[in-house]
Amino acid sequence: MSGTEEKVGRRRDEEEQDWEAAKAFFNNMKSKKPRPPKPSTAITIAVSSRTLFNMVEERKIYEDEGLEKYVAYNQQLEDQPLKHGAAFPFVKALMTVNSRLRELYPDSEELFDIVLMTNNHAQVGVRLINSINHYDLLIERFCMTGGKSPVGYLKAYMTNLYLSKDPEKVKEAIEQGIAAATLFTPGKKTELSESQLRVAFDGDAVLFSDESEIIVKQQGLDQFFEHEKANVNKPLAQGPLKCFLEALGKLQRKFYSKNERMNCPIRTFLVTARSAASSGARVLKTLRSWGLEIDEALFLAGAPKGPLLEKIKPHIFFDDQIFHIEGATETGTIAAHVPYGIGQKYHKGKLIEQPEKQK
Ligand SMILES: [Mg+2]
C-alpha cells in the first residue's frame, strides 16, 4: 500500500466516525415534540398565515397605513397571540389524526405535515411563531417568501394541499397541478368534531374535471343527463382535488388495516348537485375505477348545499362555484373555493361577462 492510499483510507475512516458521531448525537437529543416527517412520505398541507390566523385587523393596518406601521403593530403585540383563522380547526383536526397514527404506527412517517406558507415580513414571523406555540400547534416548517409567489416552494415541499386567502396564488398553484383552494370564513361559528377530521368535496370541477359541467352550462340539463347516460362506463377525468382525496384514502386504509374502520378519525363526503338516478352512477363508477372510497355520497339534485353541510359539520368543504361557497358560509361551514373550470365564468347559472351588445 502506498503512502497516499494509506492517507485516503485513514481519511475515510475518520469521515465514517464523524458521521456515526453526528448520528449518535442527534439520536440522543431527547425531545417531547414529535419530529416532522420527511416531505417524500408526508402528506403536506401548506397554509397561509391569514388562513391559520384571523389577521383581518392586521391586514387593514397594512392596507390603510402601509408596511412599516403593520410591522410595528405586530411587533408591539408580539406576545399577544393571533385569533383563530378559518384553517385553524382543520389544522387541529390534522394533528388529531397524526396523534392517532403515531399511536398505531410509532415509526411511520406517513403523517400530515403542516407548513406555514407566508409572504410576511420576518419581524411579523416572531408573532406567528409565538401564536403557534401558544396554541401548541406542531408546525415546524415555515416558508417566508418575502412577497414572492409560493408556487416554487409548494413544489419543493411536495405539497398535497395549499390553502390561502389570495385567489391569484391559488389559481397559479392549480395551474401548476397542485391541489389548492381559497379559504372563506363562515358567517357563524359551528362546533366541530375534535376526534375526527371531516372533509367534504363537491364532485364536478373539484374531484372530477369540468367536462360534464361544460355540457350543463352550455347545453342544459337534459343534454347533460343524456351525455352522462351514454358515458356511464367512461370514468370522468380527474379534477384538481382528486389527489388530496387519494392522500386521505391512503391514511384511512392505515386505520382499516388495524381494525379501526368504525373508529377512523378521517371521514370523507361527496356533496354534489347531481341527481342520483339521472347522473349519479358515472360519479360512483369513476371513484371505483380510481380505487377510491368516499364514506358518504350525497346527491342533492340541485337543492342548496348549505343546510346539508350544516348537518355534516365538515372542517373544510371544497367547491368550484362561488354561490355554493356563499351558501355554505352562510350556514356556518368553512368553505374553500377551487377556482377551476367553466363555473368560474358563471354565477347562478348565468354568464358573468355578457358580450357587449352592438349598437
Ligand atoms: Mg362543481
Secondary-structure blueprint of this entry?
Blueprint: H1 3-28, E1 43-48, H2 49-52, E2 53-54, H3 56-65, H4 67-76, E3 83-84, H5 88-104, E4 112-118, H6 122-134, E5 141-144, H7 151-156, E6 159-164, H8 167-175, E7 180-184, E8 197-201, H9 211-219, H10 221-230, H11 242-256, E9 266-272, H12 276-289, E10 296-299, H13 306-312, E11 316-319, H14 322-330, E12 335-337, E13 346-347, E14 350-351
Parallel strand pairs: 1-4, 1-6, 4-5, 6-7, 8-9, 8-11, 9-10, 11-12
Antiparallel strand pairs: 2-3, 7-12, 13-14
Helix pairs in contact: 3-4, 9-10, 13-14
The structure holds magnesium ion.
Magnesium ion is lined by residues 202, 204-206, 319-321, 343.
User: What is the level-2 CATH architecture name of the largest domain?
Assistant: 3-Layer(aba) Sandwich
Radius of gyration: 24 Å
CATH superfamily of the largest domain: HAD superfamily/HAD-like
Number of helical regions? 14
What binds here, in terms of ligands, is: magnesium ion
Basic shape: globular
Terminal residue distance: 95 Å
Q: What is the count of structural domains? A: 2
CATH class of the largest domain: Alpha Beta
Number of strands: 14
Oligomer status = single chain
Q: Any idea of the CATH topology of the largest domain?
A: Rossmann fold
Unreliable stretches (pLDDT < 50, length at least 5) are: none
Q: What proportion of the residues is helical, as a percent range?
A: 40-55%
- What's the pLDDT, averaged over the residues? 91
Could you describe the largest sheet, including whether it forms a barrel? Answer: 10 strands, mixed
Report the portion of residues in β strands: 15-25%
What is the ordering of alpha helices and beta strands? HEHEHHEHEHEHEHEEHHHEHEHEHEEE
